[in-house]
Amino acid sequence: MRGPWDWQAMRAKHALAARAPEPDARFTSRWTNVRGLQVHSRESRDAPIGVTPVVLVHGLAVSHRYLMPVGALLAARYPVRAVDLPGFGLSEHPDAILDVPALAERLAEWLKASGNAPADLLGNSFGTQIAVDLAARHPELVRRLVLAGPTMDPEARSMPRQALRWLRGLHREDPGQFPILMRDLADAGLVRAVRTFRAALRDPIEEKLPAVEAPTLVTRGEHEAVSSSEWAERAARLLRHGELAVVPGSPHDATYTAAGPLAAVVMPFLDRDP
Fold first, then answer.
1. Of 91, 102, 242, 272, whose Cβ has the fewest other Cβ atoms within 10 Å?
2. What are the residue boundaries of the AB hydrolase-1 domain, all occurrences included (predicted)?
């Protein structure tokens, strides 16, 4: 009998997430110079010609790795680029700890240097804050925006409240994700992770959302614990061209745990004419 977990599927997902920098049949790794640092991205092969690339932006203290399950599904239709922000994953570390505007600026420079601008951005968790900052200050670089499980909810803007929300939803996450997250944390280092967390708490995303011109889809997992329904609804209302969708059966890290349902919600949005 099959147990409560599909071990074969978990192993396949882990292998996809942990493969870089080795190439495989679907993805390869690339490094781009941004302000003297080598920034890593995991990029789909045989990308469709003339289709806007989808750039995946990871969350706090993690990397491209946990984005790969949804990236693999999106790559069937779009060029996919899952980037490691400077200081995380396989990208080189800057000397300073970068806050949200600084990380967004590095991402903007990477988009231009790598030839991926303009792009559709899909950010998860802390990655939504970076995507919003970039879209507000560089509208020419963003065609569409997807904010999956946006942070920081103004009603829970403290380290203990955010940690408690994350812990409440932990039992719904794919357990195969945790070795990936531990590897990401080791790559970033505890000091960088904590100081970036503090920078994320200081970032007033709610003040930036009205400045975003790109059509934006806000998604929230059906079993989301980090991004409350009230905050997701408010975020969608604050946007000029915002809409909200619920990802069935999903916790916070939909990109890994509920990649199929997330892709099913996102692809019709990306396929519309802007």
1. 272
2. 53-161
